[in-house]
Structures are given as structure tokens and as C-alpha cells.
Design a protein that fits this description.
This protein is about 10% helix and about 25% strand. By secondary structure, the protein is mainly β. The chain has one domain (about 50-170): Sandwich (Immunoglobulin-like). It has a five-stranded mixed beta sheet with strand order 2-8-7-4-5, with no helix packed on it. Strands 1-3-6 form a three-stranded mixed beta sheet, with no helix packed on it. The N and C termini lie far apart (about 110 Å). Bound molecules: copper (II) ion. The site of copper (II) ion has 6 residues, from loops.
Length: about 170
């Protein structure tokens, strides 16, 4: 007789279901929406932004812009271009940026006498923040300067008789 070996191999898979239970931590409060994302506070080492200003002066004794804007404490790169054709002796132009509180009429009167210094009066240098060279038709000059204090600054052309027409404001914010 055939002895049927009923191998009852009961493989008891010891399913150690270590289901520790999804212990959901309910600590998320409703205030989570108000949490600020990244701390993007301005670091002083951040790259400095330069303000580029392009100003033109013409044979019509005018600037193309009379209102300029810049940022306090950051470099201002200003280019003045004389778009006309008249020579420097007849229609010279510059840009003189004056310190706040400067008496423009008085400054211009002094500039009249400073022909040998491109109409930049040496006695009034304390009132000047920056200035370009005096230019004739077709010429240009670029200057870079920084204004630390916010405010409204007057700029003029100091060539004789020009400032009444060639005057504008640089607003520094
Ligand atoms: Cu001028």
C-alpha cells in the first residue's frame, strides 16, 4: 500500500504585522498658514544696483528730461549727451547736481564768472554733488556718484544764461 505522505507543511507565515497604527500627530495648528516662508530680509552684502540715467541736451537749450529718479546710497551712472551741433562756445552744456538747500540763482551768478573752469565756480564747490564736463555738440560725458540722503536735488546747466531753461530735479528715494 502506498503510504501517502501527507506532508502538511503548514507554513505559518508569522506575519508579524507590526502595524503600530498610524499615529497621526494632530499637532498642525490652524496657524500654520500664517507662517512666513523664507526670511528674505535684505543683507548688506547683496549686489548693489546701479541707476543708469541718460540725459540729453540740445541746440534748443533744453534737456530732454527734467525729472530724474534714483535710489539713496546706490551708485548713479549719469550720461549727458549733447545731441546738437553747435560748438561748446556757443551752446555748451553740462549737468551740475546741487546739494539740497543751494540757492540756484546765486550759484548760477557765480558760475557766470567761471568761464576758465567750464563754468564750475570753485568758490561754490561745496554746493556741488557732482557735475559733468562742459560739452559741445555731439559730445557726451558719463559720471558716477552716490547720494546717501533721500531728497529732491536740483540739477542745472551752468553755461551762462542756460539754467532758467535747463533745470530739473533728481528725486532720490
Ligand atoms: Cu546748457
Amino acid at each position: 500500500m502506498k503510504t501517502s505522505f501527507k506532508i502538511l507543511s503548514f507554513l505559518f507565515a508569522a506575519a508579524t504585522l507590526a502595524s503600530c497604527g498610524n499615529d497621526q500627530k494632530t499637532t498642525t495648528t490652524a496657524d500654520s498658514a500664517t507662517v512666513s516662508s523664507a526670511d528674505t530680509s535684505i543683507v548688506t552684502a547683496a549686489p548693489v544696483t546701479e541707476t543708469v540715467l541718460n540725459l540729453e541736451a540740445s541746440d534748443q537749450m533744453k534737456y530732454n528730461l527734467t525729472a530724474l529718479k534714483a535710489t539713496a546710497g546706490q551708485p548713479i551712472k549719469l550720461t549727458l549727451k549733447h545731441t546738437g551741433k553747435f560748438p561748446i562756445t556757443a551752446m555748451g552744456h553740462n549737468v551740475v547736481i546741487l546739494k539740497a538747500g543751494t540757492d540756484v540763482d546765486s550759484f548760477a551768478a557765480k558760475a557766470l564768472e567761471a568761464k576758465d573752469n567750464q563754468y564750475i565756480p570753485k568758490s561754490e564747490e561745496g554746493s556741488i554733488i557732482a557735475h559733468t564736463k562742459l560739452l559741445g555738440g555731439g559730445e557726451e560725458d558719463t559720471i558716477t556718484f552716490t547720494i546717501a540722503e533721500k531728497g529732491t536735488y536740483t540739477f542745472i546747466c551752468s553755461f551762462p544764461g542756460h539754467y532758467t531753461l535747463m533745470k530739473g530735479t533728481l528725486v532720490v528715494e
